Amino acid sequence: MDLTIVGCTGSLPGPDSPASCYLLTASEDGRRWQILLDLGAGSFGALHRHTDPDEIDAVVLSHLHPDHCLDVTAMRVWRGYGPTRPEGPLDIFGPPGSADRLARAYAAEEPEPMQGMVFHDLVDGASFAVGPFTITPYAVLHPVPAFGLRVEAGGVVLAYTGDTDTCPGLVPLMRDADLVLAEAAFVEGRDEERGIHLTGRRAAEAAVAAGGVRRLMLTHLPPWNDPEVCRSEAEEVWGSGVEVAEPGRTYPLAEPAAEDGRR
Which carries the bigger pLDDT value, residue 83 or residue 44? Predict the structure, then answer.
């Protein structure tokens, strides 16, 4: 399984990256499968640099804030009016109410159905499959209904927190993951409100508490965050080797563990 960072800026698109969007690729029986975790504001354009949007097999939305879901409306335009008009609907998995939320975002006045898409509700702890991917959502702590997404394929595990603060759902989400992709929108000593986002420190604390995590990568940093501050906070708990997501980069998830990784 490979992870491509299509967009990783927190809360809004930034000068160097769109908002949240992560492309996962894996093969099964000679067929390449591709899914997106989130499709946030500005990310659909960048997606073209990495793949043909017609080849996306499913989109999984962690929650319904625009920096994580808004460009599903751009996908709707592409599929409805673009040059290829793909056959068959695109599966969209998200929190209950996703279809209505995006129908309102797509329309100027009255909601317009998201034609060419079939919506499925995520359920806490209920796994589902898309080709070689097994995805398990875990309810996390955010001001709106939100899920962390545990994805397994080819014998490796990616745990994506979505947006969350410290909560019980992070333990089964992260346990024994090959890579934890953890948001770190808040900074210790600056952002005191709880129940919204992790800091680098709290992301590392959650990964250590879950146990068996091999790699920790911080993401969803807003443009006003200094990535090195967030990394430093996490490394005070994790030790050296904390990564920060880089837009446009592809990370193979089957790489050998670094010497300072945790198992």
Answer: 44
